[in-house]
Design brief:
A hairpin with a 4-residue loop joins strand 1 (about 105-110) and strand 2. This protein has helices at about 5, 10-30, 35-100, 145-155, 155-165, 175-180; strands at about 105-110, 115. It is elongated, with a radius of gyration of 32 Å. It is about 60% helix and about 5% strand.
Length: about 200
């Protein structure tokens, strides 16, 4: 038979404890003491309450660890993807350099043919990425919401709209929300603890 903690929700256990407590108090008032069976059942539900809280705590801890692992894995895989893309680009540039050095149009293997061909547009070759001015780069940044809001308030509207359109991901900053709550500031869309 499943334990009380397995079979019941925390809310159900709390309701049962409230009912048992009222029943015990009623028996104590009318008979001078509560029945042993009732007290034993109350103790069972007290133990189940503690067990349920611990189960929830362990579950949350496991899910937090899983979330952290997934985030780190995502970052690691993104780094590997960037590294692979860089290797592809460097390899293509090396092949192109080889073809141009020997004034060749193509080289053939058993499965692949590598060729230098004129696209409809000239291709861009990066010779020194560190020397490239930032205005010729894509910028990925993680910016604090306060800094972001301040920056948008200081730039012309057209530039602010352009910056807003470039945002790909936003996520809540729990530390900033907690700080606002400590200053008794209301944060639309968020609350602390038991607030609603």
């Amino acid at each position: 038979m499943a334990s009380i903690a397995e079979a019941s929700s925390l809310f159900e256990i709390d309701v049962e404890l409230d009912g048992l407590l009222e029943e015990i108090e009623g028996q104590v008032e009318s008979e001078g003491q509560a029945a042993e069976g009732l007290v034993a059942r109350f103790q069972q539900f007290c133990e189940a309450h503690g067990e349920k809280v611990d189960r929830i705590g362990r579950f949350v801890r496991i899910m937090e660890a899983r979330e952290q692992y997934c985030r780190s894995e995502s970052a690691r895989l993104a780094d590997r993807a960037r590294a692979a893309a860089g290797k592809v680009e460097r390899t293509k540039n090396m092949v192109l350099y080889y073809l141009l050095s020997w004034d060749l149009k193509k080289i053939e293997g058993q499965q692949f043919t590598l060729r230098a061909q004129k696209n409809s547009q000239d291709s861009v070759r990066i010779t020194d990425e560190t020397a490239l001015p930032k205005c010729y780069c894509w910028i990925e940044a993680r910016v604090d919401g306060v800094v972001w809001g301040t920056m948008l308030s200081l730039v012309p509207d057209e530039l602010a709209k352009s910056l807003e359109l470039s945002v790909q991901v936003t996520r809540p900053n729990a530390d900033a929300i907690k700080g606002a709550a400590m200053r008794n500031e209301r944060v639309p869309g968020a609350c602390m603890g038991d607030q609603k």
